[in-house]
């Protein structure tokens, strides 16, 4: 943040501005020098206030200006290292980070994607979607290497074996509490199996944030 504009005001201007205020309170007209000094002080205070606002833009205002949802802004903050993930946005910090990013990626942004004309150029919806997909795939590969990701087929097999054990327990419930208890358990298992069968195999990270609005 630049030095306070109000701190740069001379004592002469402060004295003249004070005299202008006193004359206005008394219903008198300040002199030209007094009026100009008062105007300089008011402008300096406005400048300082403007910089204060620059450093604390509400996240809601940033969403409205950018046209992006909060989850998209948070993902872009993580992916590109931009300071837009907090509750407020520091505009000077964002501008500095943005220009650092542009400078560091100047060649990539200028070249675009020569293999696919739809992705060419510094920025486009297709290019942004491709970047998002590349980022998700890189994260998936990392999770596989870290053994923190289970293939969907493995999960289905595990759930099926668990269901078989629960059905076996249901037989014991039937012997102790009657057919009604087994019916309740079987209905719950059937509903669970339906939910499992309806899992979308096309998205291994269901629930991950995806930049839908480039």
Overview of the structural elements:
This protein has 214 residues and is mostly helical. Among the domains are: 6-54; 57-104, no CATH class; 152-197. It is 67% helix and 2% strand. The chain has 9 helices and 2 strands. The chain has helices spanning 11-25, 32-54, 59-66, 70-80, 91-104, 106-111, 125-145, 152-177, 179-197, and strands at 57-58, 88-89. The protein has a two-stranded antiparallel ribbon.
Please state how the strands of the largest beta sheet are arranged side by side. Answer: 1-2
Overall, the morphology is: elongated
Mean of residue pLDDT? Answer: 77
One letter per element, helices H and strands E, the order comes to: HHEHHEHHHHH
Fraction of residues in β-strands: under 5%
Rg measurement, Å: 32 Å
Considering the chains and any ligands shown, give keywords for the structure.
mainly alpha
Secondary structure elements and their pairing?
Layout: H1 11-25, H2 32-54, E1 57-58, H3 59-66, H4 70-80, E2 88-89, H5 91-104, H6 106-111, H7 125-145, H8 152-177, H9 179-197
Antiparallel strand pairs: 1-2
Summarize this structure briefly:
This protein has helices spanning 11-25, 32-54, 59-66, 70-80, 91-104, 106-111, 125-145, 152-177, 179-197, and strands at residues 57-58, 88-89. The protein has 214 residues and is mostly helical. Among the domains are: 6-54; 57-104, no CATH class; 152-197.
